[in-house]
From TrEMBL, chains A, B:
The keyword Transcription regulation applies. CDD domains: CAP_ED. Residues 145-209 form the HTH crp-type domain. One of its GO terms (molecular function) is DNA binding. GO terms for cellular component: cytosol. The keyword Amino-acid biosynthesis does not apply. Keywords: DNA-binding, Transcription, Transcription regulation. This is Crp/Fnr family transcriptional regulator.
Length: 209, 209
DNA sequence: AAAATAATGTAACCCTTGTTACACAAATTA
DNA sequence: TAATTTGTGTAACAAGGGTTACATTATTTT
């Protein structure tokens, strides 16, 4: 494990901290689609992402959902951070977008390291900063963009975090994550295809530009 | 100043920290409507809110805006926190919703206090947590609610932070903050009035329920 | 191979929201 | 007080996106 830890976090943390992480952290692999956190869960460990991508979703009372953002390697979950510290329930849902590798840190260490390591504090603060900015991006999309623009942006993000640049989702799945209906997505996808932006296939989509 | 500091932050911070804040912080009063931060600004001090309310807005490239949330007494601005630490530009706009009193902390102290005071770290973490949750609330509203529901929620928040419980805004101003048009707001306000939820006047609105 | 299931394409329709236009009333200024 | 500006009410229409319904094609199961 130490090697993957060094590769991804070596430039962020001093050696003492890396060694501590190596000692108390547990390595974990999750398959694509694995549900890592549900709304209402109490979180008892903090993940450091080594590889893969995790999608973070919001859900309303009717079960309608909305994609907020993706976590990628080098990221951690700011929501988890606060949940751990405050002992509050999770407000979001986390699902592995691809197969992913992570190091899980027991929450007791967080307070200790925050006092001890400047690099840890900076990491936590920067993590919050990134997450807040991603939330702003999400707000920009739903507040200021029309559905076709949102869709194109969504497809680009999906392609970025996927292994091979293709989007392996059905129209229905896309509709759920954008909180709209399958018919609307099919309609707009066809429009984007006619514009030469994408190529549609059964179960997957490729970007052309 | 020490009294107002104690009243609002005494239960959060230990005495040593309160004394330090008292020494290095500068007291500031701003009138309603005062523009405290614009998008792109570099922020050089962190505010601790003593009284009044600050509204935090997002703006897109066309100058369209959207109300994100209000800061009230006991709050600080998480965005500012990260801007200070990371030396990055502000992503949001902050305007005094009411007359407000604040204590401004020079940013150099933040790193120092984060190492020194557990209560400061907790305050900062909790502040991030609150802001993330408020962003989620905002996302819920724009993603899952219809405009009439958003409007009613907006009116309730406005009334909460105002001195006397009335909403002193024109329909045009409300339209800007919800990122819609004046005609839509007038239409929905009239509907809410007919439902007995509110009473309309020129330049202000009162809630009935 | 036949039947069932899953994914997509598309038409027709409706509702919410956005737009344009204009009337009228209240407040401010000349 | 007359003229102008500001705020509100409302009608008529347009556009985006949500809904229902059904056809077609690909894939999986029997």
């Amino acid at each position: 494990m130490i090697q993957e830890l060094k590769d991804n976090y070596g430039h962020l943390f001093e050696n003492d901290l890396l060694n501590e992480i190596n000692q108390v952290g547990t390595f974990k692999e999750v398959p694509e689609g694995f549900k890592m956190i549900s709304i209402g869960d109490y979180v008892k460990a903090m993940p450091l992402l080594i590889s893969g991508a995790i999608k973070i979703l919001r859900e309303d009372n009717d079960g309608d959902e909305l994609l907020l953002y993706f976590l990628e390697k080098g990221d951690t979950c700011a929501m988890t951070l606060t949940c751990c510290l405050g002992q509050t329930k999770s407000e979001i849902k986390a699902i592995a977008e691809t197969d992913a590798k992570l190091i899980m840190i027991p929450i007791q260490k967080m307070e200790e390291w925050s006092a001890k390591y400047k690099s840890w504090r900076n990491f936590v603060f920067e993590s919050y900063h990134n997450r807040l900015n991603e939330m702003l991006e999400t707000i920009d999309s739903i507040a200021f963009l029309k559905m076709d623009e949102r869709l194109l942006k969504y497809l680009n993000e999906k392609a970025r975090v996927s292994e091979d640049g293709t989007i392996r989702n059905t129209h229905q799945e896309i509709a759920y994550e954008l909180h709209t209906s399958r018919v609307v997505i099919s309609r707009l996808l066809k429009k984007l295809e006619n514009l030469g932006e994408i190529k549609l296939h059964r179960n997957y989509i490729t970007l052309l530009k």
